[in-house]
From TrEMBL:
<dbReference type="InterPro" id="IPR004240">
    <property type="entry name" value="EMP70"/>
</dbReference>
<feature type="transmembrane region" description="Helical">
    <location>
        <begin position="96"/>
        <end position="124"/>
    </location>
</feature>
<keyword id="KW-0812">Transmembrane</keyword>
<keyword id="KW-0732">Signal</keyword>
<feature type="transmembrane region" description="Helical">
    <location>
        <begin position="136"/>
        <end position="155"/>
    </location>
</feature>
<feature type="transmembrane region" description="Helical">
    <location>
        <begin position="167"/>
        <end position="196"/>
    </location>
</feature>
<dbReference type="GO" id="GO:0016020">
    <property type="term" value="C:membrane"/>
</dbReference>
<dbReference type="Pfam" id="PF02990">
    <property type="entry name" value="EMP70"/>
</dbReference>
<dbReference type="GO" id="GO:0072657">
    <property type="term" value="P:protein localization to membrane"/>
</dbReference>
<comment type="similarity">
    <text>Belongs to the nonaspanin (TM9SF) (TC 9.A.2) family.</text>
</comment>
<keyword id="KW-0333">Golgi apparatus</keyword>
<dbReference type="GO" id="GO:0005794">
    <property type="term" value="C:Golgi apparatus"/>
</dbReference>
<keyword id="KW-0472">Membrane</keyword>
<keyword id="KW-1133">Transmembrane helix</keyword>
<protein>
    <recommendedName>
        <fullName>Transmembrane 9 superfamily member</fullName>
    </recommendedName>
</protein>
<feature type="transmembrane region" description="Helical">
    <location>
        <begin position="12"/>
        <end position="36"/>
    </location>
</feature>
<feature type="transmembrane region" description="Helical">
    <location>
        <begin position="64"/>
        <end position="90"/>
    </location>
</feature>
Amino acid sequence: MASALALVPFPTMVALLCMWFGISLPLVYLGYYFGFRKQPYDNPVRTNQIPRQIPEQRWYMNRFVGILMAGILPFGAMFIELFFIFSAIWENQFYYLFGFLFLVFIILVVSCSQISIVMVYFQLCAEDYRWWWRNFLVSGGSAFYVLVYAIFYFVNKLDIVEFIPSLLYFGYTALMVLSFWLLTGTIGFYAAYMFVRKIYAAVKID
């Protein structure tokens, strides 16, 4: 009886299929069309085909140290809001501060952009030009702190002892952390890319 009540009603399933084929699928092909017609990015200066030798870097320029340092500020900007989000998802509490959530998201975008620009500036000053993937990883470093907080929340706030609920919690948490890492990494990368284009466009080559 319980399994029969848990089934999705047929009209709901039809509505979801209509939304998928009527909204999601056309948007995929629309994005493909505009992405295929978009012109590639034009770099402001010519790239040297012979790679330069990178000098020995200091300890704080290590990739993992940069991830730990750069992730603190964006995580601190959203720490309090993250508690209410977890409480709404896992403890069935009502969440109604969507305006404040949007403000926190704006602060998160600004902090990720600023941290990313600062880190790529230090990296370029150290004559290390391999900033693309490093910057993506570093700007997404706050996802590591989100994962640590999710483990802390599971141990101290939830009374889950069985295997299947624990697997469900950490499965959804892994998806959330991965999505958050891709989001913050993309924000930081585009901010650093615009910064690098701006400073190299100002370089006068004789």
